[in-house]
């Protein structure tokens, strides 16, 4: 990207007020323009196809699907796509999976506004950017339960993430463009890989790993 070109940004978040705040702040940055917004994983992919932005600012948790799945879909179509995930989910297991998919940057939604600006500019240059707090958490050795989930393939991780949130198999399949039967087969393999016998055990293990807030 020539240095004089404006940095074209796609914003993906399922909360309109968040997108509005990002847009207002980023468009105060010289050389940055927001070219599109989306609020779902499918919408993110179609907006990216339509506009081909330099940077995608992607929330991890979306109302339909996830930012990790949307990022993987975009990167499968264009390995050079530059994506920054920005999420309230600061658990290393989520951030590591996003990085494993191929996103270039990760920041928390509680980051100061200038961190968002720095991250967008760095990712636009093709540089890795992980906010300091997240980088420190990623550097620490993770408990076995987290390591087990981090070892899952990105698509299997996304299937588990949706399952433990109570998403029916049919809807998981729709979000990943797979049949419910394929999702069920993948879950059987995942349970074997994680060493659990049932979905209840899988949910408990996910809670230990920080994938959800479990209350007995």
Supply the key terms.
216 residues; alpha/beta; Rossmann fold; Arc Repressor Mutant, subunit A; 2 domains; 6-stranded parallel β-sheet; globular
Helix content: 40-55%
Shape field: globular
Distance linking N and C termini: 52 Å
Which structural category fits the helices and strands?
alpha/beta
CATH topology assignment of the largest domain:
Rossmann fold
Q: What about the largest sheet?
A: 6 strands, parallel
CATH architectural name of the largest domain: 3-Layer(aba) Sandwich
How would you describe the overall organization of this protein?
With 216 residues, this protein is an alpha/beta fold. The protein folds into 2 domains: 7-139, 3-Layer(aba) Sandwich (Rossmann fold); 144-209, Winged helix-like DNA-binding domain superfamily/Winged helix DNA-binding domain (Arc Repressor Mutant, subunit A), CATH 1.10.10.10. It is built from 11 helices and 6 strands. It has a 6-stranded parallel beta sheet with strand order 2-1-3-4-5-6, sandwiched between helices. The longest helix is centred in the last third of the chain and has 15 residues, at 180-194. The N and C termini lie far apart (52 Å).
């Amino acid at each position: 990207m020539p240095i004089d070109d404006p940095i074209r940004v796609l914003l993906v978040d399922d909360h309109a007020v968040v997108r509005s705040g990002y847009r207002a702040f980023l468009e105060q940055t010289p050389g940055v323009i927001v070219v599109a917004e989306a609020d779902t994983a499918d919408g993110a992919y179609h907006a990216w196809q339509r506009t081909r932005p330099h940077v995608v600012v992607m929330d991890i948790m979306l109302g339909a699907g996830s930012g990790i799945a949307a990022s993987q879909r975009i990167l499968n179509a264009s390995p050079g796509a530059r994506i920054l995930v920005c999420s309230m989910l600061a658990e290393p297991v989520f951030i590591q999976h996003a990085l494993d998919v191929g996103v270039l940057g990760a920041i928390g939604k509680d980051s100061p506004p200038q961190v968002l600006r720095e991250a967008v500019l760095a990712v636009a240059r093709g540089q890795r950017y992980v906010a300091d707090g997240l980088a420190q958490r990623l550097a620490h050795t993770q408990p076995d339960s987290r390591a087990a989930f981090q070892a899952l393939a990105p698509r299997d991780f996304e299937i588990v993430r949706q399952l433990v949130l109570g998403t029916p198999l049919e809807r998981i399949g729709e979000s990943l463009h797979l049949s419910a039967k394929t999702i069920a087969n993948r879950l059987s393999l995942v349970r074997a890989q994680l060493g659990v016998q049932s979905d209840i055990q899988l949910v408990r293990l996910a809670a230990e790993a920080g994938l959800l807030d479990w209350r007995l």
